């Protein structure tokens, strides 16, 4: 179940129907930020307890299962062998929806997911900026049953594109923030000059910076799990950055980049994600053993592991820039960020703004995202805030978020993206069930 936070449009508004219609939030006094070291020690202690609890649960289950199968040691050996082989069998993640690359650079590619029959549709195109944290961009087309791109198309936004972040190489280690903004601008100009921009996680703060610098290119801005105020709320990433950068500057991060030959190693990013929530990793592998004879569970496990464990490097110069300017010095929300001699002023963003946060998101807690609402120039009536039940990754590929939370948001975007007949509101409700189908009764796979 999801909770929605937003304010209703004024009676005289000519906009389309809002995706969320709920009372406005009350202003709260900002809480004092916890001491980074104390917070990290407490957080890790809680995680250790969760790991011990999960191992204990799995051990009890294994003993019961062993007693039930005591007459068949060969079967136990078979299950263990199948467990190990399944954990080791990894494949490269792939795009599932038909698409074509229409713009390519050494570090990014623009993919067009528009179906042939919809190329002339009278709807503003939509571009999705995926997360960029050492993993494949295919998370937005995670599986045939759970695809953010398929859901967007089913909402009526039939002209849809996505930027794919390519793995960094020695030739692209010096790619800069300016290069990323340029490729977004080139992509939108190729799409017609104006687009609905959807940014997931890191793609969200990148989309925000772009919208502030190129407001004329952005029709609507949708952000999901995107850190805008990097120091808001309780976040292990924010606390660790404050602790390390506050005591040693960028030295630890530069060392990691040097070890990667000028790039941030994707394996290091993966190790960091696992260390943040080790209980998810332990639980996922132990639940695989428990359900090794369930084809549906094994398939869901394989799809997730293929994406999660297949890493790619991040351009070193870009990575060090974001650590210093965003994670450490928090310049975006402070209004101190400058790029190419231009000030990044979020007040320049006046288009409709839609925000989706996860209630248990440990990577980007909701306050980090919702801070955007107070910094932009968008009227309050055109700001939608929504909280999905679940964590970080579930916002982009989780079955609940794709079936319950994204559809109303994209219906709101659709209402701003089609011609409006005189005296009538635009947009209509679209069915997204087929785009986010899910086998009934399939066990969930624990994910960070």
UniProtKB/TrEMBL annotation:
Q: Kindly provide the name given to this protein in its UniProt entry.
A: Poly(3-hydroxyalkanoate) synthetase
Stretches the record annotates as Disordered = 1-35, 414-448
Q: Which Pfam families match?
A: DUF3141 (PF11339)
Which Gene3D superfamilies is this protein grouped with?
A: alpha/beta hydrolase
Under the heading SUPFAM superfamilies, the entry gives: alpha/beta-Hydrolases
Mind telling me which PANTHER family this protein's record contains?
A: POLY(3-HYDROXYALKANOATE) POLYMERASE SUBUNIT PHAC
């Amino acid at each position: 179940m999801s909770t929605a936070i937003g304010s209703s449009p004024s009676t005289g508004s000519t906009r389309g129907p809002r995706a969320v219609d709920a009372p406005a939030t009350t202003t709260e006094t900002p809480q004092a930020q916890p001491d980074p070291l104390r917070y990290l020690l407490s957080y890790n202690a809680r995680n250790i307890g969760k790991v011990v609890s999960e191992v204990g649960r799995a051990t009890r289950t294994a003993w019961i299962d062993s007693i039930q199968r005591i007459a068949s040691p060969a079967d136990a050996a078979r299950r263990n062998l199948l467990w190990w082989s399944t954990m080791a069998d990894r494949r490269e993640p792939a795009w599932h929806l038909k698409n074509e690359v229409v713009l390519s650079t050494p570090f990014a590619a623009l993919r067009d997911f528009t179906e042939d029959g919809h190329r002339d549709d009278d709807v503003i195109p939509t571009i999705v900026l995926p997360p960029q944290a050492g993993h494949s961009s295919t998370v937005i087309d995670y599986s045939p049953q759970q695809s953010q791109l398929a859901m967007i198309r089913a909402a009526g936004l039939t002209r849809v594109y996505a930027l794919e972040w390519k793995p960094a190489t020695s030739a692209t280690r010096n790619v800069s923030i300016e290069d990323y903004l340029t490729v977004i601008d080139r992509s939108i100009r190729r799409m017609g000059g104006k687009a609905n921009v959807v940014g997931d996680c890191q793609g969200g703060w990148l989309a925000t910076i772009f919208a502030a610098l190129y407001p004329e290119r952005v029709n609507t801005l949708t952000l999901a799990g995107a850190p805008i105020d990097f120091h808001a709320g309780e976040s292990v990433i924010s606390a660790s950055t404050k602790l390390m950068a506050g005591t040693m500057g960028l030295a630890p991060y530069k060392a990691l980049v040097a070890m990667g030959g000028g790039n941030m190693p994707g394996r290091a990013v993966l190790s960091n994600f696992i260390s943040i929530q080790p209980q998810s990793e332990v639980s996922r592998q132990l639940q695989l053993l428990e359900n090794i004879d369930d084809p549906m569970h094994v398939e869901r496990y394989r799809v997730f592991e293929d994406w999660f464990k297949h890493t790619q490097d991040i351009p070193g110069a870009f990575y060090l820039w974001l650590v210093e300017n965003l994670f450490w010095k928090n310049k975006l929300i402070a209004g101190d960020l400058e790029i190419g001699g231009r000030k990044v002023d979020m007040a320049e963003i006046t288009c409709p703004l839609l925000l989706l946060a996860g209630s248990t998101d440990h990577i980007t807690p909701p306050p980090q995202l919702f801070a955007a609402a107070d910094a932009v120039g968008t009227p309050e009536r055109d700001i939608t805030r929504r909280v999905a039940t679940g964590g970080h990754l579930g916002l982009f590929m989780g079955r609940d978020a794709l079936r319950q939370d994204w559809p109303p948001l994209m219906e709101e975007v659709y209402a701003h993206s089609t011609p409006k007949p005189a005296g009538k509101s635009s947009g209509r409700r679209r069915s997204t069930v087929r785009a986010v189908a899910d086998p009934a009764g399939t066990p969930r796979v624990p994910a960070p």
